[in-house]
Each structure stands twice: as C-alpha cells, then as structure tokens.
Design brief:
The structure is a single chain. This protein is an alpha/beta fold. The protein contains 13 helices and 7 strands. Strands 1, 2, 3, 4, 5, 6 and 7 form a 7-stranded mixed beta sheet that branches. The longest helix has 29 residues.
Length: 384
C-alpha cells in the first residue's frame, strides 16, 4: 500500500521548517507530539509509519512540477486570505552554495580516475592505469606547496589523457547506459578545460568545479568573504512584509539587469496585480528596465534615490536595506545557505521547499506579533 499523501507532504514541510534530514524528521515525529499531529500519524503506527528512504523517492516522483504545486498551494492560500500583500516588490539575487569540497584542478583530475574506477567495477573491467602510482602522487600533492600545483596538474593530466582514451574504447564496445554517456561528456569537458588551464587561460567559460555537481559554477557577488562561492544563482523577490514571493534558479551568474523583466512578470502573475513600488539595487539598473516596468507601477527605485520622488526616498532606502536582511535570514536560518541536493533540477526542488518553509515561518511570526488581521486568520482557520 502507498503511504498517505498528507503524511509525506507534512514530513517535507516539517523537514524544511526545522532544517532536518530525512532520518531526523522521521525520528522527530516519533519523539514530538506536535509533529505527530501535523503529519497525521497514529500512535499504533508511530514506530514504523515510514522509512526515511521513502521521502527521497517521494521527492523524485514529485519532481519540480509536483514540488511547485505544493509550494504554490501554500502561497495561494496565504495570498487569498489577504496575508501576503502586493504593494511593494523587492528584488535581489544570491548564491545557493552546493555541497562540495573547495575545488582545485588537480582534485578534479583525480576525481575523474575515481569515476572511471566505478565504471570499471560496474562492467567487471580491469583497471587500466597504475592505481598505486596514482595514489602515491596524490598523497605527494597533498603535502606540496601551492606554487607546485601547476607541476602536479601537468603530471596528472599526462596520466589522465591515455586513461581517457582507453575509457572511450571501452565505452564504444560496451552497451552503456545514459548515465555513462553523461560521464563521458563530463570527462571530455574536463580534459578540454585542463588543457585550457595548462595553456595559461585564467577565465574559462562554464568552468567545471565538481564531477558530482556538474551544474555548479564559481560565482562572485561582490562580498569581501568569501570572494567566490560555488553553486547556482537564485533570483528572489519579496514584499515589504518579508514574504518570499518568487524564486528562480540559474546555472552560473546571469546578469541581474537581464533578469529584471522576467522576474517582474513572474511577480505580477503570482500576485495577480502590479506592484505600486519596485525596489532593487544598482545591478538591475538600465534604461530598458525602466521602460519595461508597467505604467501602473507608481515608483521604480533601481538603486538611486533620485529614481523616486522625495516623499518616497526614505521608504525605498529602508526597503532596500530590508531586502538584504530578508536574504540573510533565508541563507542563515531557512536553508538557502547550502543545497544538500545535487544538480540544478534538484536545487530547484530544494529552493521551493525552503521557500515554502520561509513563508510559513513568516506567517507564524506575524501571527505571534499580532500583525495579521482577524479576517485573514479566520480564512486560514486560525481564528473563529
């Protein structure tokens, strides 16, 4: 028998609200009466109601579309109850860091040998490189100084090139899976990238930083520390209350100015109205973005005070500062600091689940502080 949809969705929500792993959230339900009530787990089923691996399979079956359906259902309920207001749009982007070891070029080549070793064991092939020598040189690299990296990269690349050629021969003769097709493409990309690095190129487009997280990219966002983060870009919009209205994931670092019109349209579609005020930083500033803003939007603040009338300047500056605060809360307390899922598609699922948890937390905060109208609480079933 399939598991209860109510229980599985509630477990996903609780796991993001409390920042718990699959194992931890199942254990938490067994220990916490409030979680048990929310997830609709009977006492008689408490100690075997679900296996943690079921949550992973459930997310895979949901995919991006199913997860978005859950998140949008929660969001639309809050919007229709009058909790989420659309007067102000606050837009910014940040980095969703991937869960990977800080990359270097030699580690990538060594990791490629590990991937080819897994392939060899899968098809019962004999290792076609000197594995003892490879590990010995890897340990030597670990003890080396930073100024010796170029020498070790050359050495490891010289071992990698013939190994890759043999891998291609095995790949041609074996009926491989689609997964192996992707591995060959990644290894070819790594070989070309390493050749560019050895040729002295410093800026490599779409640079590969991990063979496990092949969608991760080095991204700089103008911070002092860390100067560079490895992951994907998340475009966010908030309203002045602090609710997260829209999110979108991008591979690499697209220019903020090029994303403005699309993000504004997404906000309008979700809120079913135009915002009265738009607030961004200078990264979104361009003449095209001013022109693409609807005439029904009274105030457009794209990073400079003279963009709006004097009466609105203080409000817009405060809103701009608040945007940074909302993003800081999202990254440090709501799961946007690091994605524990792999690939960009799974990062999108992680983002949607964290967005749902963020908005539910914001709802609880406003209710606790008495900042929600009684009619809104009544529509949500939180008041009589």
């Amino acid at each position: 028998m399939g598991k209860s949809l109510r229980t599985l969705v509630a477990l996903l929500i609780v796991s993001r609200l409390r920042q718990l792993s699959d194992e931890q959230v199942v254990f938490g339900v067994q220990e916490n009466r409030y979680m048990q009530y929310l997830c609709n787990v009977a006492d008689s089923e408490l100690f075997d109601f679900v296996n943690p691996s079921t949550l992973c399979k459930f997310r895979q079956r949901l995919g991006e579309k199913g997860t978005y359906l859950i998140e949008s259902t929660v969001f639309d309920s809050l919007r229709e109850a009058g909790v989420i207001l659309a007067e102000t749009l606050m837009m910014d982007s940040t980095v969703l860091v991937n869960n990977l070891i800080y990359p270097n070029d030699v580690r990538l080549v060594f990791q490629a040998f590990t991937k080819m070793g897994i392939f060899a064991r899968q098809y019962s092939l004999k290792i076609w490189w000197d594995e003892v020598h490879l590990k010995k040189r890897w340990r030597a690299f670990g003890r080396s100084k930073s100024n010796q990296r170029a020498t070790f990269l050359t050495e490891f690349h010289q071992m990698f090139v013939p190994a890759l050629q043999t891998f291609r021969c095995h790949w041609d003769t074996i009926n491989t899976s689609n997964r192996d097709h992707k591995l060959l493409a990644v290894l070819n990309l790594l070989n070309a990238q390493t050749e560019q690095k050895l040729a002295g190129e410093r800026h490599i487009e779409n640079r590969l930083v991990s063979l496990d997280e092949i969608d991760a990219r080095p991204i700089k966002k103008g911070k002092t520390f860390p100067a560079c983060e490895f992951g994907s870009t998340v475009q966010m919009t908030f309203n002045r209350q602090g609710f997260m209205v829209t999110t979108e994931n991008f591979i690499g670092q697209p220019g903020d100015a090029t994303l403005y019109a699309e993000t504004l349209s997404r906000f309008q579609k979700r809120m079913q109205t135009d915002p009265q005020t738009v607030v961004t930083d200078l990264g979104f500033r361009s003449a095209t973005n001013f022109e693409s803003t609807s005439d029904s939007t009274a105030h457009v603040f794209l990073g400079r005070s003279n963009d709006v009338i004097e009466a609105q300047r203080d409000f817009c500056r405060r809103a701009r500062s608040a945007t940074e605060g909302f993003i800081a809360v999202a990254k440090n307390l709501r799961g946007f600091g690091k994605s524990l899922y792999k690939r960009c598609l799974d990062d999108r699922i992680w983002t949607l689940l964290c967005q749902m948890a963020y908005n539910l937390k914001k709802l609880l905060q406003l209710k606790r502080d008495g900042k929600l109208a009684h009619e809104s609480l009544r529509k949500l079933g939180l008041a009589i």
